[in-house]
Write a structure and sequence with these properties.
By secondary structure, this protein is α/β, with parallel strands linked by helices. The protein has one domain: Vaccinia Virus protein VP39 (Rossmann fold, 3-Layer(aba) Sandwich), CATH 3.40.50. Helix content is about 50%, strand content about 20%. It has eleven helices and seven strands. Strand 2, helix 6 and strand 3 form a beta-alpha-beta unit. Helix 3 runs antiparallel to helix 9, helix 4 crosses helix 5 and helix 5 runs parallel beside helix 6. The longest helix has 23 residues. The protein is globular and about 40 Å long.
Length: about 240
């Protein structure tokens, strides 16, 4: 299922980042979020399953944490597909999923978010955990990525995004940005050995859109209803967009 890599994915640090840090990826996530990322993904999975979907896509699945949470919460009523452009990440996710929920419970697909290999209106739900920023922030094909999400969703289907956000409080926002630039960038580099990847993560999170700007982006793509739930004083949040 190898496809040509799009220009933005070939450019550093994104493509190199997700093919060189999988062995450290989960550890760094636990450390820099103080373990909150697990809870936040669990809440996002709950939102994905709130309407009892039959098919759910974990888009930009990485090492598969959201897909595993979806399977654990859905039991047997939902079919879960996990998609990522990094074969290295998918290899880690496959092994982790087999150990966590058993073989065959998740269908893993290697493809790009800008060209999803699924028919129109194929999924009742799409979940994205801490990857929407990569798909949209200063990305020349951001609209294409959102359009593809919209295309593969059934009418009434939900796109659930858990992502970093911008706290409304200036004090909290300032402290959060300091934490990103001084702690996250340093800890990510020390734990993974990849300085550029975590400098990118820190800067993109510090400069990422507000919840209101994300809502405008999703509404412009055709979603008819978008809500936001802040997490941990607004440093992260869950967006729910309904087609």
């Amino acid at each position: 299922m190898n496809q040509p890599e799009s220009k933005e994915l070939q450019s550093p640090p994104l493509y190199g980042m997700f093919n060189t840090i999988p062995q450290h990826y989960d550890l760094v996530n636990r450390v820099i979020t103080w373990g909150f990322d697990r809870r936040w993904r669990w809440l996002a999975a709950h939102e994905c399953l709130a309407t009892g979907p039959r098919r759910v896509l974990d888009l930009c699945s990485g090492t598969g944490d959201l897909a595993i949470s979806l399977v654990r919460q859905a039991k047997n009523y939902a079919m879960v597909t996990a998609l990522d452009f990094s074969e290295t990440m998918l290899a880690v996710a496959t092994k982790k999923a087999e150990a966590a929920v058993g073989q065959g419970r998740i269908t893993f697909t290697h493809a790009e978010a800008g060209s999803l290999p699924f028919p129109n209106e194929h999924f009742d739900g799409v979940g994205i955990s801490f990857a929407f920023r990569n798909l949209t922030y200063k990305n020349p094909v951001a609209k294409m990525h959102i359009a593809e999400i919209f295309r593969v969703l059934t009418p009434g289907g939900r796109c659930v995004i858990v992502e970093t956000s911008q706290p409304k409080s200036r004090v909290v926002r300032g402290l959060f940005h300091l934490y990103l630039r001084w702690v996250v960038a340093w800890a990510g580099h020390r734990l993974s050995g990849n300085r550029g990847a975590y400098q990118y993560l820190a800067e993109s999170a510090a400069r990422f859109y507000t919840a209101g700007e994300v809502k405008e982006m999703l509404m412009a793509a055709g979603f008819r209803q978008v809500s936001f739930r802040p997490l941990l004083f607004g440093v992260a949040g869950i967006h729910v967009a309904v087609k």
